[in-house]
Amino acid sequence: MTDVIARLAAANPVPTGAAVHEPARLPARRIAVAAVLVAAVAVPAVAFAGRLADALGISNGGTTVSTSEVLPGQSGLDQAMQELKVGGTMQYLGTLNGTSFYATRNADGHFCLAIDHTAMQYDKGFGCDLNADGFPSSTVQALVFPPVAHFLQGVAADGVATVELLDADGNVVESTPVTDNLFESDAAPTGTPASIVTLDATGTVTSRRPLPQPSGS
Q1: Which pTM does this prediction carry?
Q2: Does the pLDDT at position 62 exceed 60?
Q3: Cβ-Cβ contacts under 8 Å for 30 (sequence gap 6 or more)
């Protein structure tokens, strides 16, 4: 999988002079990611909606779109989808704060997420959670993208009302509400995120897990 990620990262159209790095990995969580990120901080019939939501494991079943429409013109990311066994369609989950979200399950049943910051040329990405306890599960109630969180954005499980990033001392460095299983904050964390926490509508913590750390941290 490392060779696949490296090849796909090399194919991604990044801005001139921007470096491409394979994401840092934790042994406990395997997330294959092909992303194009700026370094600046930074309709099916209603009858099918229930089945689509069941397939994704969240209430937001989205709208079926062709995979070729998800990140048009991004040949490296299109190749990433093929390498990670994504089929011909994805579900458009909606747009929140200028970020469009798409999701599907690949041929192996893993949850895959694509994002497109529609107002930005390069801030796009795609990845799949390759873990046995993949999203959504009791321990993984928020799938943040990219996994080394520079922004708090991604997809949350049903019942999650707020997603937070905590530093190593347990201080909240960023927090954002969840809307239709989606969350997106346009603010950078005020510290170095070490873990991600989900809370329900009463403020009760429903899950907490560590985040991968950048190389050298």
Answers
A1: 0.76
A2: yes
A3: 1, 129, 130, 131
